[in-house]
Amino acid sequence: MDRHFSSIESDVCIVETHTVTTLPRKSVDLVIVLTTRTDVLYDRLQARGYSVDKITENMECEIMRVVLDESLERFGQEKTLEMASNTTEDLDDNIEAILEHLGV
Question: How far is Cα 74 from Cα 53, in angstroms, rounded to an integer?
């Protein structure tokens, strides 16, 4: 993964992943972890046609804060930003906060 990051010629690179442990520490300035209330998550996954097992796995990960905790452990509080992702208003607020962080 390091070689992929070192070949990027931009100051800003956005990576979408569920596995922050694969990201190189030295190449990451900020990790944004989107969290969702479990009732909202359940409805989303069910609407997408996910199997009961997949819904259960995702719900357990959200309840146990797996991605958030992995990010905090790997990158620390100063590089981890938790954002709610429950409503379209959250989406708008998150975009605004990210653009502000990037200085755009």
Answer: 28
Q: How many CA atoms lie within 13 A of 102 on its CB side?
A: 14
In a domain, 68, yes or no: yes
Q: Is residue 46 part of a domain?
A: yes
Is 101 a domain residue?
Answer: no
Whole-model pTM above 0.90?
no
Tell me the pLDDT tens digit for each residue of 42-52. 999 999 999 99
The angle at the Cα of 10, spanning 78 to 5, to the nearest 5 degrees, equals 70
Averaged pLDDT for residues 59-63: 97
* pLDDT over 80 (residue 6): no
Looking at the structure of the chain, the number of domains it has is 1
The runs of H, that is alpha helices, within the chain are 2-6, 38-47, 52-63, 66-75, 88-102
Q: Rounded to the nearest 10 degrees, what angle do helices 66-75 and 52-63 cross at?
A: 40
Boundaries of domain holding 50: 34-88
pLDDT of residue 10: 61
